[in-house]
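Support reply, case 0932

Customer input (verbatim):
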Amino acid sequence: MALQRRLPEDHIGESSKDIVRLSMGVIATMAALVLGLLIASAKNSYDTQSGELVHAAAQIRQLDRLLSVYGPPASDARAQLRSTIERAIDRVWPSDNGGSANLAPLATTTEDIFTVIANLESQTNAQRFAQSKALEIATDLSQTRLLLYEQSGGSIPLPFLVVLVFWLVIIFMAFGLFAPANATVLATLSVSSLSVAGAIFLILELAQPFAGLMRLSSAPLRAAVAHMGI
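Our regenerated output:
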């Protein structure tokens, strides 16, 4: 709007407006496509990691049940499993100290669980079956943890966001270039820009499911821990 007052009259005439409108139509179409693509990508990544978290919680409960079926010799393995999950919750959701989420896997802890389960001396077919399935589930849990760690870096390429923001800035500059400077126009442009900024905010939040305001809940894992030993 400030630029509008400084430009010569022929720069903001009807012929110039037509060209600007056509150009902004092209840019707005590309911006809408990229914005939709980024939202879909971020939502898909968020849903994938949410599903993996719920699946991991179910596997933890199943592993605890198998160790329960194995019998008293597996009590140390059950205690080790519970301790490991509780430490993982504290590292990924550090609500007490307000720290950031840490999804880096602890190899030594995983090896301890594997060692305890693998060293169980099975005496019956039921125990051998429970031990075999427990090792399979422990392997799957380790893979899931690694997947969550690898996906925690964000799924939105920075160049996409930079180009999108550049296009949006150009679009709103064009709006202001030919808009009258009154309260209604200012309020309308402000609401419109805040709406677009809100969409970008949602993209950034969904791309980091273990941080921010929309972080994934620890409820599935906490529920799994609560049911251990039952």
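We compared this against your earlier run and they match. Two observations from our side: Residues 2-40+156-207 form one domain. The radius of gyration is 27 Å. Please reopen the case if you see a mismatch on your end.
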